[in-house]
Write a structure and sequence with these properties.
heterodimer; A: Immunoglobulin-like; 2 domains; 6-stranded mixed sheet; 8 helices; globular; B: 388 residues; alpha+beta; 4-stranded antiparallel sheet; 8 strands; 12% strand
Chain lengths: 381, 388
């Protein structure tokens, strides 16, 4: 097997100098609010409330008990829709969520560079041999404007590169672990146990490599992720990606979008501080996904969110056809909200009927307000 | 001092400067620290709610710079501006303006997330508009101060005629009662002060600050007491003691006023008539503590008594103003400590005066004194229970 170059020479920018912070896991214990009052003093004050009340000299405190005056300027409340969301923009030079949406098999790279990571070769039976180079690299990524996360990545990005094949193709992946911990690639799909990347002796130690080889089947929308232990950490640190297997002959042409629902626990308390599709919080609020009115839009939605039992996808003003796991060509459901547990995925198809902006987000409001929310901008008629 | 002595004094300092320069030039901790993450600490200082939303002041209490990246309110990323923007150095402060439609009477959670993903939280227990300085607000604060500070103390002063008619044993009882009351206030101040000190940003070294301020107050009152007593006779000494008791209580009440004003500012006050009654009872005993040393002082002009009352009670008003408008836990700790130190000194003076040449142990064993001490502590404890 051809030895893989150091990650720095592989067409990806793994320059760690671009990172601007490190994570303190324990150094920054949250500080108790310095309200500065013992329970005793607080209660003590409580008496004063009535004192002032008796004397008829109350100010805004009364408002707390009357619903007529919320205390906040109606202007502010009215602008709440515009003030929710992250502040600023992420640097898209190292990872561009907009480009990630519509690229697979490294299609976003120019040709000579692309062939270092992906090559295809026809086989006698008409299928393709698809060869990939995947490298596990530790790298700091920007998950919300100015917030940096010490990720474990496939090829320097989270989610990892989207792999796409046609049912029956041969998949061959050279996996090199350049990270500091053992990693694997575990694929969802048909494959023999030796290719599962999950058992203790299948861990690829730092500096070592492994060749995964199997046939792409069944057709549908799948995923791949690291299966080294502890599993939770290896997944939430960023080792996952989408794996699309097209039916023989392909699907009806459409504007296709890859959306991996993920989350990040930046302070390592077992709870996500950031939720998103494709990593960057609220990215598509500022940069809507442009689609054409009337054109078929196909969304490959994969849920890899760690810690939370489920995630969901909701599209405003529209309905979509659902192909759960993408393993049937016929739609099983028409809805505007779909729920997926971790590892579950679905292909969603729809056509925009009206021009304008359509919001999409998790229908867990908490996830939406923590980053998992975006806009479609439908154009033309 | 000769030039030679100056030189000898300065030499180690010059060498120290050289050592510091050396450390800064070749940081020896670099080798140990390696790639370790920075130590980030951010403390919320003051959180105000207004018609424009939430304004929070945060302090970088850690050794390393902190970059505030995003702000969340109630688990939602929210628009904000930071002044100054950019990295916060050690002990630097930034003010965050967050246009959040807070809901009166409800709880809100603020969360700051730094560039490295570390989070710092602050809970607004009960959201209410932060009072802004205005004639009305100052009037309300003044009223609160009168209620809990000035009036109860003035009522307690009315025990003066009784104190004057007490015999030897009665007087011992009254003075011991005063000491009991003051000891309780001392414990109360120390408890509250140390509690706030523990919650303060580490760089302020809250407990050391408390000890320093208390020690300073103790010495200052000692010196003041000596000066005052030099000015004349037994009556003068009694007045001096009463004055010092009033000063000690005044400092304590100032700290109490700070806490009261702050609680209003932080929206932590609730209603309860029983509590205000308890407060009045509690502080009325402070007036008795002031007049007890005056039994031998001859007839006292009402104006002079009123002055003592004001010294003890009026600081509450100033405290409420300050606490309500510019609350800072540092001032709470400093003034609780100053109050504690002053009270400790006054207790020492009264017991010395009561004991005269006797050992303190003999004094405490006499029935009126033991009973007075216990009664003083018990009264404060019982009225304190009504307060909380």
């Amino acid at each position: 097997m051809r030895p893989l170059d150091a990650a720095g020479g592989l067409g990806y920018d793994f320059d760690m100098s671009k990172t601007s912070g490190r994570v303190s896991q324990n150094g920054g214990a949250p500080t108790a609010p310095p309200s500065g009052l013992s329970r005793r003093s607080v209660l003590r004050l409580a008496g004063l409330g009535s004192a002032t009340g008796v004397l008829g000299a109350l100010w805004g405190r009364r408002e707390a008990h009357g619903s007529a005056h919320p205390g906040v300027d109606p202007e502010v409340a009215g602008h709440a829709a515009h003030t929710m969301g992250v502040v600023g923009r992420i640097d898209t030079e190292t990872f561009d969520p907009a480009a990630f949406l519509r690229s697979w098999n490294f299609s976003h790279l120019p040709e000579p560079e692309r062939s270092r990571w992906y090559r295809e070769e026809p086989r006698p039976d008409g299928t393709l041999l698809r060869e990939y180079e995947l490298v596990a690299v530790d790298r700091e990524i920007e998950i919300a404007p100015g917030v940096y996360f010490p990720a474990w990545t496939y090829n320097g990005e989270v989610p990892g590169p989207t792999l796409r094949a046609t049912e029956g193709d041969r998949i061959r992946i050279r996996f090199l672990n350049q990270g500091a911990h053992p990693h694997t690639i575990h694929f969802h799909g048909w494959h023999p146990p030796a290719m599962d990347g999950s058992l203790p002796d299948q861990q690829v130690l730092p500096g070592e490599s492994f060749l995964y080889e199997f046939d792409a089947e069944p057709f549908g929308l799948h995923l791949y992720h690291c299966h080294a232990n502890p599993l939770k950490r290896h997944i939430h640190k960023g080792l996952y990606g989408a794996f699309i297997v097209d039916p023989p002959g392909g699907r009806v042409p459409a504007d296709e979008l890859v959306m991996v629902m993920n989350g990040f626990d930046t302070n390592f308390d077992g709870d996500n501080e950031v939720y998103a599709v494709n990593t960057a919080a609220h990215f598509h609020m500022a940069e809507p996904i442009r689609v054409r009115v009337g054109e078929l839009v196909r969304m490959y939605v994969v849920n890899v969110t760690e810690f939370d039992p489920i995630n969901s996808f909701h599209l405003h003003g529209m309905f979509f056809d659902v192909h759960r796991t993408g393993t049937r060509l016929e739609s099983t459901e028409s809805t505007d909200t779909i729920m997926l547990c971790q590892g579950e995925r679905a292909i969603l198809e729809t056509r925009f009927r009206y021009p304008g902006q359509f919001m999409f987000h998790a229908h867990q409001s908490e996830f939406a307000e923590l980053g998992w929310m975006g806009l479609f901008e439908a154009e033309g008629a | 001092m000769s030039a030679r002595l100056w030189l000898l004094g300065l030499l180690p300092l010059v060498l120290l400067a050289g050592l510091l320069a050396l450390i800064l030039a070749f940081d020896p901790t670099e080798a140990i620290r390696g790639d370790a993450p920075p130590v980030e600490r951010l403390a919320f200082q003051r959180v105000e709610l207004g018609p424009e939303g939430i304004r929070a002041t945060v302090l970088n209490d850690g050794p390393d710079p902190v970059q505030i990246a995003q702000v969340m309110v109630d688990e939602a990323y929210w628009a904000f501006t930071a002044e100054p923007a950019g990295e916060l150095g050690h002990l630097s402060r930034a003010t965050l303006e967050i246009p959040y439609p807070w809901v009166a009477g409800e709880v809100h959670e603020l969360r700051v997330i730094t560039a490295t993903g570390v989070t710092f939280d602050h809970t607004i227990e009960v959201a209410m508009a932060t009072p802004k300085p205005s004639g009305r607000v100052l009037a309300v604060f003044t009223l609160i101060g009168l209620y809990v500070g000035v009036l109860p103390v003035a009522l307690g002063l009315a025990w003066y005629p009784l104190v004057r008619r007490l015999g030897r044993r009665g007087l011992d009882f009254a003075l011991a009662l005063t000491v009991g009351l003051l000891l309780f206030l001392l414990i109360d101040s120390a408890h509250d002060g140390l509690e706030i000190a523990a919650e303060m940003p580490g760089s302020y070294q809250g407990v050391a600050l408390f000890a320093l301020a208390a020690g300073f107050a103790f010495l200052a009152i000692e010196v003041l007491g000596v000066r005052l007593r030099e000015r004349g006779g037994a009556a003068g000494a009694a007045w001096a003691t009463a004055f010092l008791v009033a000063v000690g209580i005044g400092l304590h009440n100032f700290a109490e006023g700070l806490a009261i004003g702050a609680a209003f500012a932080l929206g932590e006050a609730a209603l309860g008539t029983l509590l205000i009654i308890g407060f009045t009872l509690h502080n009325t005993t402070e007036g008795l503590a002031i007049v007890a040393p005056l039994s031998k002082a001859g007839s006292a002009p009402v104006a002079r008594l009123a002055l003592l009352g004001l010294v003890a009670g009026a600081p509450t008003i100033a405290g409420v103003w300050l606490g309500g408008l510019v609350y800072s836990p540092v001032w709470s700790v400093v003034f609780l400590a100053v109050g504690a130190g002053a009270i400790a000194q006054v207790v020492a003076q009264i017991t010395r005066a009561m004991a005269r040449e006797r050992p303190i142990g003999d004094l405490v064993r006499t029935a009126p004194v033991a009973a007075g001490l216990l009664a003083g502590l018990a009264i404060m404890y019982a009225t304190g229970m009504m307060i909380g």
